Amino acid sequence: MDFSRPDNARKINRLKVLAALRHENLSKADLSRELGINKVSIGEIIDRMLEEGLIEEVGRTAAPSGRPATLLGIKPSSGRSLAIEIRSKAVSVSVSDAKGRILRFERFPRTESMMEDLERTIAKMRGDDARLYGAAVVSDEKIDLSSMIDAPIINISKIYAETSSELDRMENPEDMLFVSWADEIEAAIYHDGIITLPQFAHIRAQREGECSCGGRGCIGAVASGKALIAATGAKGYRDLLTNPALFPLWKDALRPMAATLSMAVQALSAKAVMITGEMAGISDEALGHLQALLSSALPPKRKDVRIFRSQNKDKGAREGAAIAALDEFFYHTNLLSRLSVIERMSSDFQNGI
Ligand SMILES: [Zn+2]
Question: How many whole angstroms from 197 Cα to the centroid of ligand 1?
Fold first, then answer.
């Protein structure tokens, strides 16, 4: 793409306006100032986007001096995204508005007729009149849904989806390590973007415990939610996490988890850890224990690394998938962050650095 061509510059400015309005309502003057785009161009972009129904007027500024200005915001009903989560036992479909809020959600057991069930559910939930920006499929399997969805699709992992959901609410995610602790253990770190760490589950955390990879003592084999449920005989995550009689039976798994976090935090220079997925529901007692183990495993300079729990419960993946689909196909966040790197480099170049 040639960024200096006027039509491309206009497209990029449109994306910048969408991104700026994503989390707050702003006036034309605010947008012009924040984005460094002249008022005439902002006016043209806004008029066009109002006409297309992408944004709407949401109120007026309470100006202490001068005339109040019209505030603009993303129009939630302008379009939708689909999130489809395919797990070993269950499948879920949700549809969200342009701000990522879930409008409808359905879950059904995974059976031999999964593809037919999916097609029927997607057709019903998609609606006929609404614009569909895109879909995200959360699954470790390669399942092609392109014949039933008339919009672009991305395939993402559970950790990518859960991290997207956390990032949407976070002020400063830089250098945070995200660990999805559920049936499987997965991780990602945020450095100017989400970087997933596919080998995290195979970090060797202790001596014993056979892993499907052929290794021994991998964290994914010894401390996954699936392994803990099997070892304790818990009826499910709720039972595992809230039944006080069960905690003594899996408390020892916090030790290899702390060892793994300590290694990862040091190797990746992470500043904090966020636990997502079903195990984010661990009790204060279990979290305190894990934090104490991590702090004692870290070198003196790094003892301030804190562990946080996601407040999303089990809805993180579907919320995050909706956000990831919007990021990719509506807000084009990844494209914008790549562009900002290029812009930074070219201004450094012009300044002779
Ligand atoms: Zn392994």
Answer: 14
